[in-house]
Amino acid sequence: MHEREIGFVFEISQADLLGKIGQFTTLQNRKIRTPNLFPVVDPRRQEISPVEMYREFKVEGIITSAYLSKKRGIIEEAIESGGIHGWLEFPGVIMMDSGAYQLMAYGDVDIGEEETVQIQESLGPDIGVPLDVPILPTTKKEEVATRVETTIERICRLSSFTNREDMIWTLPIQGGRYVDLMQSYLDRVKSKDCFAFYRFYALGSVVPVMISYDYETLVSMMETARMNIPNTYPLHLFGAGHPMMFALATAMGYDTFDSAAYILMAKDGRYLTTKGTYTIKELEDFPCYCKQCVSLTPKEVRRLTKTEQTEFLAKHNLYVSMGEINTIRQAIREGRLWDLVRDRARAHPKLFDGVQKLIYSTHIMKELKHGTPTTKTSSLNVFDREDVYRPELSIDYLALTKKEKQRAKVIILGNNASTYHLVQAYIKKTKIEEDLYVFHPIMGLVPLELADMYPVNQIVFTKTVAKDAWSLRLFEALDFLRSYDTILIEKGGESEWGELVVQKLKKNLGSLIASDEGGRTS
What we know:
By secondary structure, the chain is of the alpha/beta class. It has 21 helices and 20 strands. Helix content is 41%, strand content 18%. The strands form five sheets. The protein has an eight-stranded parallel beta sheet with strand order 5-12-11-10-9-8-7-6. A four-stranded antiparallel beta sheet has the order 1-2-3-4. A four-stranded mixed beta sheet has the order 18-17-16-20.
């Protein structure tokens, strides 16, 4: 648990990778679980009312806009209703954006940095956002540097014209695709006194990146922000959009997201799933069984008026988005968040590229390892090459191994061999004259006494990945084995890759290999 100020507490109960099941309590004593989604709500025009979101969709937090509150003319009415919670009739957590999104979308908005704070404080959301200067992917680096400088000036001025003590203020993280500028921005902000004023953090300028499906750039941006904000501080992703990427963002340490995709795509006749997007025109059957999808067929939906069709699709899209949040929480509880990220990555080749970018990023993968439980009750499923890099499997057993004897025996694990039976077979032996190792196609060379422990004893792998992975692990084992005078080889089961391992050991270790190769143990 990390507590920065009395009244604001972020409690973490479970974690997997950098994803966290937790709860934070706002200064107005409202609670929200993590991970979670804040659907974007227009302060006056809604296809799904906030109260329906709360009761029917179990939405715990929403985000609205100070700029739209001004543009829609609701400020005075909302104040008379007791503030934004009373106006929207929403009892959960409300976050209010400054108008920066509209600034990014339209290039200019009729709202200033002090005015947006005055609007937010008059309406009293739980979480407020200063007017930062967003960045487009097409913005030149020199202009990005200027915008970053302006944002720093604004966030450091904010405390001088805020009055309410019951609002949490968000530190926007800017720099866009120029992660070196984002790094510089964060370094400078963290060194300033104003950093302590903020208790919530959010990565901005990601919407255009996601619209273009540039998930590699998105992963770089998300990594830079997360690595500079302690994982015990709540981190938000502005404009997360499509539910197929929520698991990736959660795995990288993002606790909350906001999205208008549920309504924007509905207005465009699009139907969201965690595996991609359909248009209502192309569907003959709904691949979903939510309340909306069991009530009408696609053909019947196409006969609705435009307004009715938009409402139908918006509700389905919100069901899918909130359902994915529940799926992510359950995956964290089961220690299967990696599996979910891997599965969702197949929704789109560009998303897969983003996950690949994550896998080969040494810095954040180390952090993912630190955030992963040291034991899990479920099996570790290894389907393909990407799974070989999952954090649970990154243990360097050879670095932990102390050579005891001059002779080593390497037992080549078969496709269906049990590490439990191998260990039990050798426990019964009264005299062991060699240092004993199991060669596991996924984990490589493992001391026999550790082979029946997590994670080795819980790995379930496909024959296909074993054929691909063993060569990566064998290369790591060869130098270690060269320190022995004699090496014996024993086959612990049949496999195509096992025969190849034997051949490679003999070829690379030559005279160290004993001539009397052992037989099977099982």
